[in-house]
Amino acid sequence: MNGRAHQLKVREVISETADAVSLIFDIPTDLTRRFAYAPGQYLTLRVPSERTGSVARCYSLSSSPYCDDRPTVTVKRTPGGYGSNWLCDNVSAGDILTVLEPAGTFVPRAWDRDLLLCAAGSGITPVISILTSALAIGRGDIALFYANRDRESIIFANRLQQLARGYPRRLTVTHWLESERGLPSARVFALWARPYRRHDVYVCGPAGFASSVAQGLGQLRIPGRAIRQENYRSLTGNPFERHTPVASEPTQVVTTAGGTVAPADVATVRVDIDGETHTLPWPRSEKLLDVLLSHDIDAPYVCRESACATCVCSVKQGRTRMLMNESLIEQELARGLTLACQTLPESDDLHIAFDQ
Ligand SMILES: Cc1cc2nc3c(=O)[nH]c(=O)nc-3n(C[C@H](O)[C@H](O)[C@H](O)COP(=O)(O)OP(=O)(O)OC[C@H]3O[C@@H](n4cnc5c(N)ncnc54)[C@H](O)[C@@H]3O)c2cc1C
Fold first, then answer.
1. Of 103, 123, 140, at which residue does a domain stop?
2. Could you point out which of 17, 21, 30, 334 has its C-alpha 20 to 30 Å from the C-alpha of 74?
3. Which of 198, 230, 262 is the last residue of a domain?
């Protein structure tokens, strides 16, 4: 079992729409720090399965750490989906679920900026957390474009109405209903977004929606660095199953012309994590996360496919490269961030810190 997994009690289950529920968790006092979260982050839930033991599914926090007492996730049924339907059908108040600590980088870095928020369906979940938080602690203006199938499927309709009434000068909410106007095209979106083109953009919704929004933003020449996107998908790996350490490649040695023997395929890395420092050999063909786990170091991870950014860390010294990167944007790479699950060493001596 992942060392960052904890048993949490579900305090309340709220039916949001016919096919979406919110789960509110009680956090025991000794876990308060571990479950501190930022708006836009998510929890990973263990869903039991008679077929595979369990599956792991990520759900964004819809609560705001600045306004709500308890962390809440909101799950919408995926037609034919296993995990979401299990959670909607089976979880009641008082149940205990196994949950990983909050993770994710879909988080505004500054709260006084103007925000352009685009959500479709269950994509509203991290967006409402960002929106509520920004209204509470920021000073910027916020425009929300929220697409849904029909009026009945709008999650948080009342809450959004109340917020728009409470902050008439700062918040503009535009609902787009597919039942009345079809899917929003790139052109429609660009027309709507034009007044907000200098805002920081956050997008969360199905692939088709995200691609229309991206095209619309492209028509407005909004630079990629101003846009953050959260991609929903189901994990293929399972961070709740016990990790089997990856066998280290045998360390190769080369004999130099002078006859001395030097390790060729192993770098050395100093890793700061959870207040401790470890110095380890880092075989050049092994990803940093695998090296840490094989040394029983409790590094954070969820997907191991570069999508979730749970294993994000900073390269303080040395050069590294990533095999794949689906979640870090240019500015984060420029700040030296990397994903441990995809990182290989390029230099001989490296220093990495899990400080995000
Ligand atoms: C960062 C992030 C945040 C997210 N936030 C949200 C959110 O806030 N709200 C939300 O609704 N969604 C969210 N999602 C999406 C969510 O994690 C799931 O992908 C979604 O709920 C669909 O999962 P599902 O299991 O219902 O469907 P699917 O993944 O489509 O289910 C089908 C899969 O389950 C397997 N399966 C079927 N039956 C079984 C069985 N008996 N045992 C084991 N496996 C089985 C199948 O083989 C298949 O792989 C988020 C995703 C990410 C990555």
1. 103
2. 30
3. 230
The CATH number assigned to the domain holding 11 equals 2.40.30.10
User: Pick from 55, 42, 41: which is nearest to 84 by CA?
Assistant: 55
More confident residue, 222 or 248: 222
Domain that holds residue 174: 115-230
Residue 295: CATH number of its domain: 3.10.20.30
Give the tens place of pLDDT for each residue, 193-243: 999 999 999 999 998 999 999 999 999 999 888 899 998 988 888 888 865
Closest residue (by CA) to atom 25 of ligand 1? 83
Question: Can you name the residues that pair with 72 across neighbouring β-strands?
Answer: 24
270-318 confidence digits (pLDDT tens): 999 999 999 999 999 999 999 999 999 999 988 888 888 889 999 999 9
Q: What pLDDT is recorded for position 241?
A: 80
How many angstroms is it from 336 CA to the middle of ligand 1?
Answer: 31
- Which phi and psi (to 5°) does residue 287 adopt? -75, 145
Ligand 1 contacts (CB < 6 A) are 42, 49, 51-52, 55, 57-60, 74-76, 78, 81-85, 104, 122, 125, 230, 232-234, 308
Say which residues have a Cβ less than 8 Å from residue 247's Cβ, sequence separation at least 6.
none
* Helix, coil or strand: residue 87: helix
